[in-house]
Protein: VacJ family lipoprotein
Organism: Methylococcus geothermalis
Amino acid sequence: MDNSRIMPGRLVLVFMAVAGAAGCASDTVKQETASAGTPPTHSDSRDPWEGWNRGAQSFNDGLDDYFLKPVAKGYQWAAPKFVDKGVTNFFSNVDDVSVIANDLLQFKLVQTGQDLGRLIVNSTIGMAGFIDVADKLDLPKHYEDFDQTLATWGVPAGPYLVLPVIGPGSPRGVVGFAGDTAANPINYITPASIPWGAGAGRYVDIRADMLSATKIADEASVDRYEFIRNAYFQQRNYLIHDGNPPLEEDFGGGEGIEMEFELQGVEDRATEAREKEGKDEAKPASP
């Protein structure tokens, strides 16, 4: 495949789940880390490459601080809410192509029919997906990717792995990312500037939707690296088991951290938080 056409596929799913935790750490945590001289490390059998992973996350945090977050704030300020929502819906509709393929690979035939119905309805009546008409017809949105498909086939995830730009993942997730990228129809549009531009726009839209979640993550975590790692494992396990992960498994690396970072809810919670902030700011000051 022409590398110039490879655009982020699975990365967007990961970013939606943990992007809120990928912003700046609080000043207190930064001061504690600086005074210690080195970041805190904790033994975790899932994370034998922790040294590399922390360095890659630090690079991604810098990229977010100095580029993604400012651009996302500008986009959120400039774009009307209906435009922001329409762009999100459009990319969600494109994702349904890959979702349908993975439905079939996992032999989820009923879900395949539902997702095919979503794609047809939203692509036609919903004006290429900018309006989520399928949601009003009780056709639920599902989240399937090739990483989940490989998991259902019994392929082990391997160690936790953070890559520059791509973010949290695993060796199996890298293969899944490649598969989802290949299934994205936008990547085959020429010239190559179109898929690259669409991918960039998608990142900005996602990051803007997650700005409020960043504050939640910063307040909830002492070691943000562990927070993101645990959130990643919980979110992936939630999706792989279709919302019913085995209760006996430990996804917090022994820390017992309970987080609700499932993909289906995180975007809505971020949007609600942002709307609440807007309402609070609009309230007149009391005399």
Observations:
- The first helix runs from residue 10 to 18.
